[in-house]
Amino acid sequence: MRTDPYRLTVNGRPVEVVDGHAGESLLFVLRERLGLPGSKNACEEGECGSCSVLLDGDLVCSCLVLAAAAADRHVVTVEGLSDADGEVGPLADVQRAFVEAGAVQCGFCTPGLLMAVDALLCEEPDPDDLTVREAISGNLCRCTGYGRILEAVDRAAAMRREARS
Known about the structure:
The chain is an alpha+beta fold. The chain has helices spanning about 25-35, 95-100, 110-125, 130-135, 145-165, and strands at about 5-10, 15, 50-55, 60, 75, 85, 85-90.
C-alpha cells in the first residue's frame, strides 16, 4: 500500500518521498528512492550498525525505522558528514582519521562506524577507551580487529581538539 507523500530533511536538504510504501524502512528509502548508497544494507535487524544514521541528532539503525515515521524529521547520512551545500566537500575529520589510521578495510562497516564516532565526539570530545568501545559496540567489523578503528577515533578527537584551539 502506497503512503501519502511525506517530507524528510536529509543532509540539510528537504526531500519529498512521493512513491513510498507503508512498510519501507528509512534505509530502503535513503538508498533506493533518494540515491544515497552510503548506509549499507547488511543484517536488516539492527545488529550490525552498517546502516546507522542520525535521526534528529540520535544515532539509529535506519533498517529499523519506518521511513514514513521519519516524516518531518532531520536525517544525516554518511554522505552528509562532508557535504558542503550540495557539493562534495573535503573529507570530514572522522573520515580523514579513518583513512589516515588505515581503519578502512572492506568498507562495509565504515559508514556506520563513521556515524557512531561522529555522534560520540559531538557528545564527548575527549572519550576514554572504554567510552569509545561502548559507543561503537553496535557496529560489527569483520576485517580490522578494531585496533585501527580505535586509533582513528583518537585521531579524530585530536583533530577536533586542534580545531577548537
